[in-house]
Amino acid sequence: MIRALLRIGLILAILLAISGSFFTYWVNLSLKTPHTHSAEQLFVIEPGMGRKAIVRKLVQEGIVKQSLPLLVYMTVQPAKANLQAGEYLFDSPITPIQVLEKINRGQVATLQLTIPEGYDRFDIVETLIAGQIGDREELEKAVKDTSLIADLDPEAKDLEGYLFPDTYTYTHRTDAQQFVALMVKRYKQILTPERRKRAEELGMTLRQVLILASLIEREAKHDEERPLVSSVFHNRLKKGMKLDCDPTFIYAAKLEGVWDKNVNNPSHRRRNSSYNTYAYPGLPPGPIASPGIKSIDAALNPASADYIYFVVNSADGHHKFSSTENEHLKAVAQYRRLQKQMINN
C-alpha cells in the first residue's frame, strides 16, 4: 500500500514538474512571440493605473494577445513592473516583453515642431494650430500670458519676442499653455550671464535688446550681415534718427488686422502707429518677431562701422551698406533697376 502511494506521489510530482515546465515554456514563448497590431494606435496610460489595468487595456486594444504571461513575468521580475504613465506608440509586430520594456523605460511617444526664426506671434499661433496644439482661442490667450516673463519684462503686454524659435519635442498631450511655456523657458536659457552683462555694458535693458534683435532678424537674411544691420540701427539711435525699418510698419498693419502682404502699399508706411519706425523715432514699443541667438548676439555686438543706411542689392537678399545719403540713393536706384529686371525676367 505504501509503495503504491509512493508511486502515485512520484507520478503526480512528475506530472506537476512536466506541467510546470510546460507552463514556464508557454509563458516564455508567449512573451517572445511578436504580435501584429495597428502601429499608429496611441496607447495611453493614465496616472495611477495599476499593472493589471494596464495589461488588460493592452489586451483590449490588441497590442498583446494574452494578459497572463505579462502578469506572471511582472510577478517574478518586479523590477520590470515599473510601468510609467504617458502616451506610447508600439511597433508592429512587437513582442509582449518589448511592450513591457518600453513602458518600463517611460519611452513615451513624442512629436517635433519647428518655429522658424523671425516668426511673430501671429505666425506662431498659426503654426501651433497646424500642429494641433490647442485651438485658436487657447493659443491666442497663451501668447498673451505675461506672467511667464514678469521677472524679465514687467512692461510686456504679450509674449511677442519671448517665444524662442527652435525645434521643440513634445507629447500628444502637450497643451497650448505648456508649449508656450516651453518656448519662454528656452528663451530664458539663452539669456546667459554673459549676455546680460553685455546688455548692461551697452546701457540697454533686456527688453530693448530683444526689440532690436527682432528688427535685425526681420531685416538680415544672411548671418554675416546681422552685425552690420545692428551697427546701422545702433548708429541711428545714437544720432536720434528714425530707424526706417520696413518690418515695423508691416507689424503695425498686422496689429490692426489690415496687412495685405503688399510692402509697397503707401498706407502702411504712413500708418500712425508707435510700432512704425518711419513715423516715430527710436525703438518700437515692443519686439516685432522672435529673434534667434545670432540676431540677439548681433544686437549685443554690432559691427564697428559708420553705416547709417542699407538696402537690398541682390536677388538673394544681400544688402548694400552706406555711410552717406548720396551713397544710399545710388544704392536705392540700383535696387530699383534690379527689381525691374526681376519683374521682366
Description:
The chain is mainly α and 345 residues long. It folds into 3 domains: 34-109, Dna Ligase, domain 1 (2-Layer Sandwich), CATH 3.30.1490; 111-189, no CATH class; 219-307, no CATH class. The chain is built from 14 helices and 6 strands. The protein has helices at residues 2-32, 51-60, 68-76, 96-105, 121-130, 136-142, 176-190, 193-201, 206-219, 226-239, 246-255, 266-269, 293-300, 325-344; strands spanning 43-45, 86-88, 111-114, 167-170, 309-312, 319-322. Strands 1-2 form a two-stranded antiparallel ribbon. The protein has a two-stranded antiparallel ribbon with strand order 3-4. Strands 5-6 form a two-stranded antiparallel sheet. Strand 5 (309-312) and strand 6 form a beta hairpin. Helix 1 packs across helix 3 and helix 10 crosses helix 13. The longest helix is centred in the first third of the chain and has 31 residues, at 2-32. The protein is elongated and about 95 Å long. Mean pLDDT is 89; it is low at 8-18.
How do you describe this structure in short?
This protein has 345 residues and is mainly alpha-helical. The chain has helices at 2-32, 51-60, 68-76, 96-105, 121-130, 136-142, 176-190, 193-201, 206-219, 226-239, 246-255, 266-269, 293-300, 325-344, and strands at residues 43-45, 86-88, 111-114, 167-170, 309-312, 319-322. The chain has 3 domains: 34-109, Endolytic murein transglycosylase (Dna Ligase, domain 1); 111-189, no CATH class; 219-307, no CATH class.
